């Protein structure tokens, strides 16, 4: 396993399956103090509920400690360079979980850090969310390979990580986005290479009903991600017809799972009440952030620090 987790593609299929297995074990049996005496820095440029709380509690349950560093405290790339922050934190902590506006910030952090850097969300990917989603799917379906995950909405960071995760593990991935909001070509091309090896299929369309037809899981996310609030009205118009509701879910399989990474905008990307629908596993997804991240932290932080790069 690589020292850093900047992209879901930093893992291979066997490593993903290993993390899911370890997370299920920890969820069932509880966590041991495997990270006693170790500290994780939570370096955040964006506010968070699930990411901050799940990493903080994960470290606590593993016997370690976390320290939250807000934008005001650090001024990442403004008051102090990203490279210098990485070099300083490496002297104090055993790992850095960074929630940033830019994937490039993560790359700079990782290139100057001597401890593992975890992507806790960037503009390009959200690998911890995708891994937790795979754990949720496996719990409910008993497998990953051969299933079909349909994503309806913006080709954003969550969609990018899900496409890569699906293509790595043999799941089919359908995505329906409005013209101009499709998944990034670089991510698509990378996913196609993984799919050629795993046997999964990737389908892109502008028609939500086409994507959802026969799907095992239907997934959506907000239309305007954090940092894109200025585009909210423009996106609201562009995404009309992309709401996930009972009509769309009826086209999927009878035992379809409805998924969303939260926070949700009721009446926009989802119809009112959908989070409480029996098909919804949204709050299981949220809980599984804790368990999957415990497995990930043990894997990355249990090794001693390395000096230099």
The name of the CATH architecture of the largest domain is: 3-Layer(aba) Sandwich
CATH superfamily of the largest domain: Aspartate/ornithine carbamoyltransferase
Counted beta strands: 9
Rounded Rg: 19 Å
Q: Which class of the largest domain in CATH terms?
A: Alpha Beta
Work out the count of structural domains. Answer: 2
How many helical stretches? 12
Q: Termini separation (Å)?
A: 16 Å
Provide the structure class.
alpha/beta
Uncertain runs with pLDDT below 50, 5 residues or more? none
Question: Please, could you describe this protein's structure?
Answer:
This protein has 12 helices and 9 strands. Helix 8 (185-198) links the parallel strand 6 (172-176) and strand 7. By secondary structure, it is of the alpha/beta class. It has a 5-stranded parallel sheet. A 4-stranded parallel sheet has the order 2-1-3-4, sandwiched between helices. The model has no long low-confidence stretch (mean pLDDT 95).
